[in-house]
Structure formats: C-alpha cells, structure tokens
C-alpha cells in the first residue's frame, strides 16, 4: 500500500510540476538562449564554469529587465565532451528548442563539429575560448583570442630582455588541432625572426598524458644548448604532472621559463601552485587585473557561486574564457536591442562595431568585418595563491588576425566572414 | 692586475659594511627595471656581506617600497626599515620581480655567499656560479679562488672560473680551462666546448684539439647520466603501472571478475587521501607532512569496505556470467564517478606533496631523481611483498587460492566460499586504494582519474598472465621500461601505439600471457 501511495504522490507532484512549467512558458514570452558546454567527461573541468557564468550573466540581464522587454530563458544541454554529440545537441537547440543564439564549445574539435550545423540552419554561435584561427564563419562570433592576440605576443615577450632573451624554443603540446596549428604558426614566426630550425623542437603528447619524465629530461638536454623557453599548449589536466615533474627535476622559471596558453586560474585550482611560481601564462584577462569593472565582476561571480552553492564556491575564481563568455552575452544583448529583433541576420549586422566595457579594463570592440574582438594581451606570472601577476601587457587592444600571415596562402583569404563550404 | 685591484676593493668594502646597505636598498627601490638589473650586476661583481640580508629579502619577495620610494623589509607581516627605525609613509607596495631579475638576484646572492664562513654555503654558491657566472665576475672569482681554503669549494670555484676563461686572450689559460672542463659532466660544458671546435671562434689549434678530447670525455659522462635517467624513468613508470594493476591482479586475475570499476577504486583511494589531507589541514596543521602515511590505512579500509559492499550486493549474483559482470561493474564505475562529481565537483581537487616528497636528489650533473618517484618505487615493491605474504603465508590466502582453483572442492572441504570471495574482493579493492594514494602524489585527483588507468591495468594483468602476481610485476616493469626506451626515439603518441600493437601481437602468439598457471585446475 505504502509503495503505491508513494508512486501516486510522485506522479501527482510530477504532473503538477510539468503543468507549472508549461504554464510559465506560455504566460511570458521569452527569448531562448542555448548553452552548449560539456558538463561531464574530460572537458567538464573547464566548461562547467562557463555554463555557470553564462547563467549568471543571463540572470543579471533579466534583473535589468531583459532584452527588448522580454526575459531571457536559458536552455542548457550537455554534449558530454563527445565531439559528434556537440553537432547533435546543437541541431536540437536550433530546431527543437528554437533558441535564438547559442553560447558554447571549448575545444576546437567541438567547434568544428557544430560549425556545419550552424551554417546550414543559419544559427548564431558565440565561441569564448582562445583558438588557432584559420576560421571565420558568418554564423560564429569569436570572443576568445586569435593567435596574434595571444601566442605571438607571448613569444615576442620571451625574446625580449625582460622575458629572458630566449634563443631556443621547445614547443610542447597535446596532440590535436589547436596545438598543431598554433605551433605551425609559431615555428614560421620564429624562423622569420631568425631562429634556426635546430633551435626549435616540437613535441606532442596524447590527451591525458601523465608521465612527463622523458619530456622533462629532453627539455633539460635541449636547454644546455642556450637560453631556452618552453611554449606549452598542453591542454587540460595533463598540466599538473608536467609542472610537478619540472619542479621535482629542479627546473626553475628563472632557468627555463614555461609560457602556457591553456593554463588559467580555473586550472590552477586543482594544483599545488608552489612549484609553479614564476611560470608564465598569456591571456587577455586575469582575475588579478585591477580596475573597478573587474572588481565588480569578480565580486558578482563569487556571490553567485555562493548563492547557487556551486562546488568549491568558497574558492571561486574567474578566468579568461569566463570573461569572454560574459562579454559575448552582453554584446549579443546590446546588438539585439539595437536591431530590435533576434533575427540572426539583423543581429549579425548590429554586432559589427559593438563595444563593451570589459573586466579586462578596456572597452572591447567587435570588429566591423572579421567577427573577432579587439583584445589586449597580458603576460602573467603564477603567484603562490594560484593567481597571476601581470608582468607585461600590450598598450591597447589588438585587432585579431584569424588568418595568420605566418601560414602560407592566407594572404589570399578575404577579411570578412564567408561560409566554410 | 684585476686580482690586485679587486682585493683592494674588497678590503675597502669590508671596512665600511653598514654604510653601503641602506643606500643600496633605497637605490634599488627607486630604480627602474633596467637600472635595477645593472645594480644587481654591479653587486654580483663586488659582493659586500652587509648586503646579504637585502638580497635574501629580495629573493623571498619581502622587499617593499613606500610612497617616498624608501625600501622596507617585511618581517612577519610588519615592515621595517633596512636601517634605523623609520616607519613607512603612505602606501607600501611590494617590489615586482620578473624572471630575469630573479636570475640576477640568485647570481648576486651566490657571489655574496662566497664571503660566508660556512664552507657548505660557499660550495653551493660556487656551484650556482658554475651555471650563472657573468664575465664581469671574473676578478671576483679569481680573488675567491686565491683566498679559498676548502679544497672542494676551491675545485668548484676553479670550474666556475674555467667557464669564463674560455675566452681569455692568453692561449695557455684557455688550454688549461678546456682541459679542466673535460673533467666535469655538466651539460653546459658540452655546448661551451662545442663552440670552441669552430676555427673562427678558437684560433689556436692546440686548444681546439684539447677541446675535442675534453668534449669526448664530457659526452661519455653525459651518456651515463642519460642512460641511468632512462632506466630510472622506466622503473618509475613500471612501479606506477604495477600499483594501478595490482588490485586488479587479485579481483580479475585471481577471482576472475572483469572488474571495470577497478579504476574507480583507485580514484576513491586518491579522494580518501584528499579527505585525510583536508582533515589534517583543519585539525592538525603542524603534522600535515605526515598525512600520506595516515592516508594509507584510511584509503585501504575505505576502498576495501566499498569493494566488499559491491561484492555482496552486485557481483555475488553474477559469478560465472562474465558479460553481465562487465556491464554491471561498468555501470557501477559510472555511478561512482558521478557520485564523486556531485560530492566534490567536476574540478580536480588539490593534493599537495608534503615537503619530503617534493624536489629530488642530484646524482649526476644531468641526473636528478625526484623523491616522490623513488618513494613510489619502494612503496610498489612493499605492496607486492605484502600481497605475496598475505596470499601465501596466511590462512585467508590459502582459502583464496583454494577457492579460485576449485570452488566446489574448496566448499566441500568446509571453506566458506562466499566469505572468502567477499574478503578477496575487498583485499583487491583495498590494494587498489593504496595505489590511489600513490597516484595522488604524482598526478591529478579528479573524478575521471580511474578512467586513465583502467586500460593500462588490464594490459598489465593480461600480459602478465591471469592469476599470477609475478606475471603482473614483470609485465608492469617490462611495459614501463619498453615505453621509456621507445618514447625518446619516436615520441609519446607513436610510442603508445607501438606498445599496444606489440601487445596485440604477443597475445595472439601467447594468449595465456607471460606466466601461465600449469596443471589441471585451469578450466
């Protein structure tokens, strides 16, 4: 008897809940916003916080009265770090849930996987992570850095007196499209600066590689030939064993600096940072940047993490892709206001030239033609508390060059977005 | 001439030690980065023991400047003037240092430590200067060599000096320096000597021939270090594979349960370590360094209890049905991963190495053996020994072997097979938990930790021969060493593929693995 009662009660409450939900959807007309970030699998480490940041930004916009008088409604799906599933979930968002815009993806593989879907259905995707360039789709807005907004300035810094005037470069990466393309660009850049081929070493490891003994030994051997810097495009949690091995084998940042392109505050949360102090990272934003916009942004995020009881909320940090997500959603909202509609073609036109006062301390501009943000570049040194201290930065935001001039044939590519097929 | 001059300079500087200091600190605080760098270079050429405190504070990042550009050093949270008792005015800001500055500070530190009374400190300084000495320090080094009473320190200093003398204008000095460098096994000496082989750089043919001989000597020494390093990293990887696979060698090898949740036992062991660390941080921060030792029994009992619970509730019903076992344990592994993700979050958690597991021991100039890896090799062997003793010298072990060899006969002889199954599964899980403690010290601790080890674990057990502890040990070390021999030649990605291909071929040829159980008991 009891069990039957329980089932009855459950069914009843479920149907009430379902009724409640349909009722809200019908009552107020909303603008649907899709969020396409992995909440499980290997990329959950990085992407979960982007989903939460997107929800926080949407809440904030709603609290100010929404967009064009309508509230935003988030539709969250989980592509589970499974690249083909990204395409499937993307299609579901556009055709079934009928969202007006999607914020999502982290790895370049996932972006490449959803790209045909967005181009086919004329959807709108905001991609918030630094990447290798070589893409400019009319259906995507890139709020992360292109190579000239991260990789190239970082190497220029390593070449400078303050960066240690490195003569030899050890390019270490995870084996997939972003590190390979970035290193191709960097190699050609280094050669153009007069670095000999024998002074550049390129090494790749599989995803999730955890034994860096041989690689660190090779770095040491390589560094005997002159002042060496390591440029790391190692992605995900492989960074922890890599840095541990460096420290245990006695390599210090003063001898061989390592500049990383995928290590931010969020990644450092899972690491004992003492052995990393002095190592470098290149981004367009650090949590430690001091300006009123950022102070407010960080406080808002910490309060949100606490209010929503997110895991590890007492140590919540912000990072570059989170800032890019925040900027992207706000810019889209501004563009929708300007266009007076959520129609993709109208919003795309309205986005060109949009500006937004970002937490990085600069007013960022969406380029008029190339779908990328103009961003400042900062080099930060890891501190003991897992934060970065900026040791160098560009004077102002740089315009993105998604088609890097250091890859052959790119000079013929148009400087405006065209569909990839 | 420079020797005499620098001696005079020394004695002058030593006469007025205190005068230099406060001025130096304030000069440094007020200077721009370029000026700071040149100050540091000046100081490292002309050390003054009174400046040591300032350099130490700089190295530890304790120097701050107030709004009037006066330098202050932080002591336990409060700022004190370098000299006198002035209080900082306005806001104090820590001096920012970058890597270049830190390098210069270490060089300056080293040349100041040469003035120390402690020979050990002088030796360390001399070794630092072998790496970092700048031409401007030539006079200083010459003076120090002449002054030095301790043999070991003098040898080290002579070597540091030899590095600088390679560009001396006098060929006999160069020749002596080149000969001396042949005695070292420093990786840097190799590059320095290689440049001397070029007739454009080195005009004297006798120095060139000497450089060639020295180079051959250095290369031989470096090769020894490299080979030892490779052997060590092979052993280390092998010991990690062994720790990951040992639990599986019992649950899969002996009990025959295709245990896909084995990786999660490793993960739970690592999370137990994390929990113990958190408890220590909260309740006994002074004994924090000991937390891995306490974590061992905790992880063992936690994972053993979970393993036994699983055996009693799920796996017991599936004996003899390998396909269902595979699916059920895989499901359990997904449940455990998600459970941990909900409880601790998707992010990795921070497990810090205690001080005795950080750093390494310098065996040869190009060979550093990290402490955590040495300890893990020892620990792996210890766990193997423990498991062997347990299986071969105790009544439980006897029962386990009896049940796995012939269940019905063992039951007829009065062995409580159900209980033995449970205890054996618990033992296997507990050993996996111990492996988790060790893995937490070298890699990441996150919900997916087990996933990255499960395939390797099965490889080791299958390759070694199911049902054999010795086989697993051999297979683990064999795989580790093979991996480390292949990796430098063909890279990590191809190396891994090649190893997998070789294992497939081997299993085709010898399905029973390296070691096979002999006799009629196998069915």
TrEMBL record, chain A:
Keywords: Signal. Residues 402-421 are annotated as: Disordered. SUPFAM superfamilies: Periplasmic binding protein-like I (SSF53822). Residues 1-27 form the signal peptide. Residues 409-421 have a biased composition (Basic and acidic residues). CDD domains: PBP1_FmdD-like. GO terms for biological process: amino acid transport. This is Amino acid/amide ABC transporter substrate-binding protein, HAAT family.
TrEMBL record, chain B:
GO terms for cellular component: plasma membrane. Pfam families: BPD_transp_2. GO terms for biological process: amino acid transport. It is found in: Cell inner membrane. Residues 1-22 form the signal peptide. Its main location: membrane. It comes from the Bacteria. The chain crosses the membrane at residues 237-258, 265-284, 290-310, 322-344, 374-391, 458-482, 488-507. GO terms for molecular function: transmembrane transporter activity. Keywords: Amino-acid transport, Cell membrane, Membrane, Signal, Transmembrane, Transmembrane helix, Transport. It is a multi-pass membrane protein. Belongs to the binding-protein-dependent transport system permease family. LivHM subfamily. This is Amino acid/amide ABC transporter membrane protein 1, HAAT family. It comes from Pseudomonas guineae.
């Amino acid at each position: 008897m009891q069990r039957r009662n329980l089932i009855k009660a459950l069914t009843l409450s479920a149907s009430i809940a379902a009724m409640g939900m349909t009722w809200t959807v019908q009552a107020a007309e909303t603008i649907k916003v899709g969020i396409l970030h992995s909440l499980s699998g290997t990329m959950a480490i990085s992407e979960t916080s982007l989903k939460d940041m997107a929800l926080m930004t949407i809440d904030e916009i709603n609290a100010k009265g929404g967009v064009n008088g309508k509230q935003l409604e988030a539709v969250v799906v989980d592509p589970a770090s499974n690249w083909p599933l990204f395409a499937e979930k993307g299609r579901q968002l556009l055709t079934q849930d009928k969202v007006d815009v999607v914020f999502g993806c982290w790895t370049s593989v996932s972006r490449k996987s959803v790209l045909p879907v967005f181009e086919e259905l004329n959807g709108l995707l905001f991609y918030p992570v630094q990447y290798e360039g070589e893409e400019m789709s009319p259906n995507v807005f890139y709020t992360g850095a292109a190579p000239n907004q991260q990789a190239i300035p970082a190497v220029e810094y390593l070449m400078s007196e303050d960066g240690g005037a490195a003569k030899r470069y050890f390019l270490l990466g995870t084996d997939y499209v972003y590190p390979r393309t970035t290193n191709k660009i960097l190699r050609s850049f280094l050669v153009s600066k007069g670095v000999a081929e024998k002074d550049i070493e390129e090494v790749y490891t599989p995803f999730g590689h955890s034994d860096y003994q041989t690689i660190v030994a090779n770095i040491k051997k390589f560094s005997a030939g002159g002042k060496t810097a390591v440029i790391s495009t190692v992605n995900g949690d492989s960074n922890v064993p890599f840095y541990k091995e460096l420290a245990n084998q006695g390599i210090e940042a003063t001898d061989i600096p390592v500049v990383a392109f995928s290590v931010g505050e969020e990644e450092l949360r899972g690491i004992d940072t003492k052995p990393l102090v002095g190592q470098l990272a290149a981004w367009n934003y650090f949590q430690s940047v001091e300006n009123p916009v950022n102070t407010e942004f960080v406080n808002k995020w910490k309060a949100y993490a606490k209010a929503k009881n997110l895991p590890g909320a007492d140590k919540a940090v912000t990072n570059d892709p989170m800032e890019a997500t925040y900027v992207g959603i706000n810019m889209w909202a501004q563009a929708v206001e300007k266009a007076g509609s959520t129609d993709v073609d109208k919003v795309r036109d309205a986005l060109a030239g949009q500006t937004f006062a970002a937490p990085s301390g600069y007013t960022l501009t969406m380029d008029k033609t190339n779908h990328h943000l103009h961003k400042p570049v900062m080099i930060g040194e890891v501190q003991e508390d897992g934060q970065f201290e900026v040791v160098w930065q560009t004077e102002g935001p740089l315009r993105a060059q998604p088609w890097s001039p250091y890859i052959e044939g790119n000079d013929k590519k148009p400087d405006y977005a065209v569909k990839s097929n | 001439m420079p020797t005499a001059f620098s001696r005079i300079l020394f004695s002058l500087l030593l006469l007025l030690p205190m005068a230099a200091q406060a001025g130096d600190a304030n000069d440094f605080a007020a200077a721009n980065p370029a000026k700071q760098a040149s100050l540091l270079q000046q100081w490292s050429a002309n050390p003054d023991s009174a400046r040591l405190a300032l350099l130490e504070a700089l190295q530890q990042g304790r120097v701050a400047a107030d709004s009037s550009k006066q330098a202050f050093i932080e002591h336990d949270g409060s700022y004190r003037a370098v000299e006198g008792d002035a209080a900082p005015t306005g806001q104090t800001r820590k001096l920012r240092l970058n890597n270049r500055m830190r390098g210069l500070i270490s060089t300056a530190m080293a040349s100041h430590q040469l003035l120390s009374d402690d020979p050990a400190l002088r030796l360390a300084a001399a070794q630092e200067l072998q790496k970092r000495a700048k031409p401007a320090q030539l006079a200083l080094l010459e003076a120090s060599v002449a002054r030095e009473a301790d043999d070991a320190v003098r040898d080290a200093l002579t070597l540091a000096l030899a590095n600088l003398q390679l560009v001396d204008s006098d060929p006999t000095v160069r020749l002596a320096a080149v000969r001396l460098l042949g005695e070292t096994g420093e990786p840097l000496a190799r590059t320095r000597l290689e440049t001397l082989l070029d007739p454009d750089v080195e005009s004297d043919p006798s120095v060139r021939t000497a450089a060639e001989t020295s180079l051959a000597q250095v290369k031989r020494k470096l090769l020894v270090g490299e080979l030892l390093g490779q052997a060590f990293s092979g052993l280390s990887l092998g010991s990690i594979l062994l720790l990951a696979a040992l639990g599986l060698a019992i649950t899969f090898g002996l009990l025959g349960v295709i245990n896909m949740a084995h990786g999660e036992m490793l993960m739970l062991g690592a999370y137990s370590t994390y929990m113990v660390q958190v408890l220590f941080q909260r309740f006994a921060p002074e004994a924090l360094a000991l937390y891995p030792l306490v974590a061992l029994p905790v992880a063992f009992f936690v994972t053993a209890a979970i393993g036994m619970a699983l055996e009693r509730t799920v796996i017991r019903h599936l004996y003899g049905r390998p396909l269902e076992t595979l699916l059920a344990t895989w499901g359990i592994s997904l449940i455990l991963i998600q459970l941990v993700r909900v409880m601790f979050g998707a992010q990795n958690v921070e497990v810090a190495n205690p001080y005795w597991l950080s750093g390494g021991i310098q065996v040869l100039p190009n060979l550093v053996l990290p402490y955590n890896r040495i300890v893990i090799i020892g620990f792996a062997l210890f766990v193997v020994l423990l498991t062997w003793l347990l299986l071969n010298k105790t009544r439980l072990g006897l029962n386990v072997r009896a049940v796995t060899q012939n269940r019905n006969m063992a039951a007829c002889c009065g062995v409580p097979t159900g209980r033995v199954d449970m205890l054996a599964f618990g033992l296997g899980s507990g050993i996996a938990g111990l492996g988790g403690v060790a893995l937490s010290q070298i890699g990441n601790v996150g919900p997916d930790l087990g996933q990255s080890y499960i395939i390797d674990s099965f490889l080791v057990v299958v390759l070694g021969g199911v049902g054999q502890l010795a086989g697993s040990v051999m297979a683990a070390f064999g795989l580790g060493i093979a991996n480390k021999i292949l990796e430098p030649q063909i890279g990590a990605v191809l190396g891994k593929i090649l190893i997998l291909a070789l294992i497939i071929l081997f299993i085709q040829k010898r399905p029973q693995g390296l070691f096979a159980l002999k006799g009629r008991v196998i069915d």
